[in-house]
């Protein structure tokens, strides 16, 4: 059996997990922003955010990158325009991931200065990159 199909399956599973985390984490921030610093509610959100980031988001992002690079090398997509656009979306999602991690640290240290509305807006950002990413992979428009 061709090993790359297993890599592709793992890649899709990791993308699903990563996207779920990127969509849920800022939603937690929305509720956390309204909780009083030091309250039981705030401390619960800190635990949830840390576990989501370290237990799901970080590992799945690493698997997405590792399997994505393996497929890229195996299929030699070096000159495909759609693949370059896909990589730009993945890089943007990775930068967003790191921004969320930084914001989580602000909450962890009770230094959040952003509003719930700010996080509501950023909750939608992953979708802005997911849509063109999926179109590139499925449609391959260029």
Written overview of the protein:
The mean pLDDT is 96. The protein is mainly alpha-helical and 142 residues long. The chain has one domain. The radius of gyration is 17 Å and the shape is elongated. Helix 1 runs antiparallel to helix 2 and helix 2 runs antiparallel to helix 3.
The parts where pLDDT drops under 50 for at least 5 residues are: none
Largest sheet: none
Count all strands and give the number.
0
Instruction: Indicate the mean pLDDT.
Output: 96
Q: Ends: how far apart? A: 30 Å
What attributes characterize this protein structure?
single chain, 142 residues, mainly alpha, 0% strand, elongated
Show the helix and strand layout:
Blueprint lengths: L2 H31 L6 H36 L5 H28 L7 H8 L1 H15 L3
Helix pairs in contact: 1-2, 1-3, 1-4, 2-3, 3-5
Care to give the gist of this entry?
By secondary structure, this protein is mostly helical. It contains five helices and no strands.
């Amino acid at each position: 059996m061709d090993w790359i199909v297993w890599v592709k399956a793992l890649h899709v599973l990791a993308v699903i997990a990563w996207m779920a985390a990127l969509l849920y984490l800022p939603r937690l921030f929305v509720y956390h922003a309204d909780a009083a610093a030091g309250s039981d509610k705030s401390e619960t959100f800190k635990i949830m955010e840390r576990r989501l980031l370290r237990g799901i988001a970080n590992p799945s992002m690493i698997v997405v990158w590792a399997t994505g690079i393996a497929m890229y090398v195996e299929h030699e997509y070096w000159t495909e325009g759609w693949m370059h656009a896909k990589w730009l979306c993945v890089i943007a999602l990775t930068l967003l991931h790191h921004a969320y991690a930084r914001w989580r640290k602000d909450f962890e240290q009770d230094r959040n200065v952003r509003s719930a509305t700010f996080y509501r807006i950023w909750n939608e950002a992953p979708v802005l990159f997911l849509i063109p990413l999926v179109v590139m992979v499925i449609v391959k428009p260029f």
